[in-house]
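Supplementary Methods, section 5.1.

A reviewer requested that the exact input to the structure prediction be made available. We therefore reproduce it here, unchanged from the version used in the analyses.
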Amino acid sequence: MANIGEEIRRLHALLPQGVQLVAVSKFHPAEAVKEAYDAGQRIFGESRVQEMLQKIPMLPDDIRWHFIGHLQTNKVRQIIGKTAMIESVDSEKLLDLIDAESRRAGTTTGILMQVHVAKEETKFGFYPEEILDYFKKRRFENLTNTHIHGIMGMASNTDDTDRVRADFAEIASLARQIKDICPDLRGFGTVSMGMSGDWQLAVEGGSTLVRIGTAIFGQRNY
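The structure derived from this sequence is encoded token-by-token as follows.
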């Protein structure tokens, strides 16, 4: 088990100004989350709805929970109002459902649109041309209770650092292109990319939010 508090403090010292840390606490107990919290961490990432809902009442209420896993449409209603951010909005259907459920609940939900640039078919997300088309056609204007804060993406799962760098460059470029297409888009600027094994490359590539789990909490308890 890593020394959680020490690792949190180390990462906070290493991350440049303007880059936030999401401590990925999925598959780790609430006690581990509390240890990170006590070291100053406030944003935590979960990927399973049930696990996140179990942890929330056990932990301080100023924690900002980010949902980072593939969100099934039948689970959306359960997490509306419980998250600071849903990072993994990977389809327009899901985005519209989040908006409808947020409207029903009388709340506004912050989201990131997940883009797919990696060279594996297992990853979810909008393809680059899809996400650009969405903004070119200004379909976000149909949303009433959802705030698109930016985009999220993952690099290819490879030891080839050139490939990883290229993936991060493409994700950051998409965020810039969206801002160019819609200069009036407010509060859009988050680029969530980078995990335990590649976050330094992601920060070099323009990440503003890194998602780190194993380096903080040790191997997951599945």
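DSSP finds nine helices and eight strands in the chain. These observations are discussed further in the main text.
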